[in-house]
Amino acid sequence: MKLVIFPIVFLLFIPSLLQSQNSLNESSMGWTKGWTNFDPNHEAYPNPDRDIPNIIDKDTHLSNESVYLLSGNVYVINGATLSIEEGTIIRCDTETPTSLVVSKGSKLIARGLKGQPIVFTSDKSPKSRKAGDWGGIVIAGSATINSPASSGVLEGNFLPQYSLYGGENDDEMTAIMTYVRIEYAGRKINQSKELNGLSLYAVGKKSILNNIMISHSADDSFEFFGGTLNINNLVSYKAKDDDYDFTLGYRGELYNIVAVRHPYISDISGSYAIEIDGYDKKAGLTSKKLSTVKIQEATLINLSDQTNYQHTHAAISSKNLAQLNFSDSRISGFSNVVKFDNSYTSYSNLQESFSLENSIFNVHDTNVVSRFSETSDVQKLLKYNMFTTQFKSVTDLFEDPLNKKNPIFTLKQSRDSYTVMQ
Predict the structure, then answer these.
(1) pTM
(2) Main-chain phi, psi angles of 261, to 5 degrees
(3) Which residues of 259-271 are buried (b: 16+ CB within 10 A; e: fewer)?
(4) Are 86 and 113 in contact (CB under 8 A)?
(5) ∠ CA 40-109-236 to the nearest 5 degrees?
(6) Cα within 13 Å of Cα(83), Cβ side
(7) Domain boundaries 8-420, corresponding CATH code
(8) DSSP codes, 268-303
(9) Tens digit of pLDDT for each residue in 197-209?
């Protein structure tokens, strides 16, 4: 299909837009090679030969010469540092509530390598692992949150003396995590609450987190509760709930993130690749800033086709006046690009709070869902992007998206096959 021709006032913009789209038509996921695993249920991990103590109150090092069992909730406390060597495998007990909790003031240093990632996974045998086999990794920092209280309590049945997070130190360093996989986490706490693959509570900007893959989480893959951390090279694969969840005034940037969803895997309340709350309505809001997130080079994909697309939700859910900026991204296989709640009381609210630029999207329903959906101006939120005029199945749009070992999300068609949003 030919590109829509803009009036003359837009001619200077079009070349730069189309030039930026060149990168969107190529695979930008080369950084995932060598350390990710899109089929962990068939991986034959060795059995553990050492136990991790439940209280780590002094500096402790885990060597890759052993395979470790994480059983019960393990707390890093009293300012201790838990360091994990590249290539270390940690099997996580599925019979007891099991999580790794890095308490406020303590540190986690997990430096994997591209060829030797650190792996946290279920202790079940191949083909029997499932989402929610164990809890997850919880990191408590001392950066700011935007609730009336300057601190909070970790969600979950954790020991209260190790459960505080939050403060005023946005520059703090609580964790270094590189080349880490977290598999089959998100254990249910009760009927209404599960843990996440990785929960980041008030983590400051000097922490370093990149090249992290979370697969088959029974709740969110990544959840950010306040804090100021910038983070890059993340993969969320087939989470039951949200892939990336932001709340409590998180302010940061994400670069090179991937969310791969399945239309039959979703929480009953609805699940999204991105869910962002400007603040927590239950906790209330202070004069501190709303959650403000900038995301660049995102690949958000629902593996839907013509037989199951009706089970999908919006790619992005924005609530409680959250502020979100997207650019240079691909969004495909969802019902909508973005859904806003009723906290946005005017179209100007939407303009001030959300932008999507230099991106390609493919959805099967209304692009934008809001209380102003009947207003034609709402669609202008997505101007300067490219889109498919008809919904396309994942296998029609991408080269080899269902490959169980190395999925390829390179667009099959050239950029000239898409329409430019006016």
Answers:
(1) 0.92
(2) -110, 165
(3) bbbbbebbbeeeb
(4) yes
(5) 35
(6) 8
(7) 2.160.20
(8) TT---SEEEESS-TTT---SSPPPEEEEEEEEEEE-
(9) 999 999 999 999 9
